[in-house]
């Protein structure tokens, strides 16, 4: 008991910090829901390393992967309450703030990684980042993961009617829900960290995700079929609590900004490669049946889903729909 008292004594704590020269150290908690070996997991680590180095150890970013602190449905509120200082939710989940974010979720919105970058670095990305100001959130960057694929146990997915009647786990996004409804499939919005469990129990037949998420969370072990469909984008917006940001010195802001720019460049270079490499690992480690959509099949999906661009215009906005259509051409 006596020992415990000494350990918890505030003066003793202060002394320890001074000893280590860490008295003024700034600590930022960065939480995310994916595994470390993913585009987001590695970008978070890189950012923490860069910040530490650039600040000579004065700023420390503590990373909490795999939803250790907050699940994806909790993290936005936790950030607003400054319980955590940085998060990087998938943009799909920002639909809870504004349905305009759904523009990035539209089916086959981006034909390739170059188009994703053009969209995020251009006016679509800027418009969405600015919309965060009224939420008192500071948008720092977009990090890319890649394209979503389908996995299922019920049967191979080649053409739209193959998913009819199947149940899929999707992210918290009504825009995504409407895509499954359009094809007469059932979509259940669930946190990322219970997807494995839901697949295991058979509560859902399948899910849609990037190859790095399918690989790192071992969904491929529970699924018989994987379709390389590239039917939707999955990427992140890195967010900071606005008041926390405002309270920092110019020097700290400069360090965080520079580290974020370098990390984002790194992410842009590596995201595609990581997804390609992890597809190879899935092939090597499992007997999951893989089908890549032919151009003819892809056309069928686009014909079936394209009406959503007009249907969802009232909630996404004419301006954003026009811009995303331009990018597709
Ligand atoms: C998901 O919920 O499937 C993804 O958003 C997880 C992630 O953050 O990549």
From TrEMBL:
- Give one Pfam hit by family name: DctP
* GO BP, sorted A to Z: transmembrane transport
A cellular component term, taken from the record's GO annotations: outer membrane-bounded periplasmic space
Q: Which UniProt keywords apply?
A: Membrane, Signal, Transmembrane, Transmembrane helix, Transport
- Matches recorded under InterPro entries: DctP_fam, TRAP_DctP, TRAP_DctP_sf
The organism's superkingdom is given as Bacteria
This protein's record includes keyword Lyase: no
Tell me which family the UniProt entry assigns to this protein.
Belongs to the bacterial solute-binding protein 7 family.
Protein name stated in the entry: TRAP transporter substrate-binding protein
